[in-house]
Amino acid sequence: MNQSLTEIGEEVLKILKEEDRFQVVTHVFPDGDGIGSSLATYKLLKNLGKKVQVHIDSTVPYQYQFLPQAQVLTERVLPEVRARVLIVLDSSDLARIAPCTQEMEEFEYIINVDHHHHNSQFGHLNMVDPGASSTTEMLFYLFWEKVEIDYDMALCLYTGLVFDTGRFQYANTTQRSHHMASHLIGLGVNPNYVFRNVYENQPPGVLDLYARALQRAHFHRDTGLIHSYVKLQDLQDHALSFSASERVIDFLRSVRGVTVAAVFKEYEKGYRVSLRSTGDQDVSKIALSFGGGGHPMAAGFEWHGEMAACLMRLQQEIQRQLKSKRDESQ
Ligand SMILES: [Mn+2]
């Protein structure tokens, strides 16, 4: 029998209250939602007097260094006792998470809290809600009126919400998202403080990075695909972290006539490709066909070959979706 989300939520809370040793992780290349949900969960467990190990697989992106306790994310101290519970946040699959500090078999429970459509249900408890804007939104409603949400938690939850809803502009923004924001502001969160830190705290080198990336943009009018790329060298020239190129795609998708925006970010093993839809295309399906994943409006995958070959396949996938849409409507 399928348990309802409310029932699963109750079980999750029971474990958070009854167990005492936890490890918290999120996906690799963590974003605002992954980091916000990890830190909010960490703070809650600390407030409950638990032993918690939380970490990410990179340095903390500069956008999130203002968050309370952000420094604990990179302290890979091994817990003196093994954790019994693993909490995985904002990750569609175990293959996508930062490496844990102990073997998977050593966890008594794996709790999976996520809002991706294609979640592999890898946990003992799977709290998966594709209707939620973000993992932080799911956590807020899990905690709300059940456990105390302090200011630090509120700030982390709000930051994840702002990030995943594109500052309340994306199609995943709902009345529930705004209701949550309203409550968090009531707990003392200052929206301008979050905005300034996440969006207006960029190292000067990003201007050159954007200039290069925008100059390379190419609009394929027949499919509505627009793409550009960021080289490893671009980041190295200005000592920028991977998160510095995050917003290039926002410029691309804002162009009239674009259906899908793609940014190829070079890294040691090839490219990490980010995809955004402007509405009609489900980019999570496209990403899935390349072995990646995500949401209908925002997804990504990794590519280990030539960019040109990938672009060709991307356009084929877009055309395939356009065709099946046309066939459906006939
Ligand atoms: Mn998310």
Automatic annotation (TrEMBL):
The residue ranges of the DHHA1 domain are 227-323
TM ranges are none
The UniProt record lists the DDH domain at: 23-160
Full protein name: Bifunctional oligoribonuclease and PAP phosphatase NrnA
Q: Which organism is it from?
A: Candidatus Hakubella thermalkaliphila
**Family annotation (Gene3D superfamilies):** 3.10.310.30, inorganic pyrophosphatase (n-terminal core)
Name the InterPro entries on file.
DDH_dom, DHH_sf, DHHA1_dom, Oligoribo/pAp-PDE_c-di-AMP_PDE
Among SUPFAM superfamilies, the record links this protein to: DHH phosphoesterases
- Record-level Gene Ontology MF annotations: nucleic acid binding
Can you tell which superkingdom this protein's organism belongs to?
Bacteria
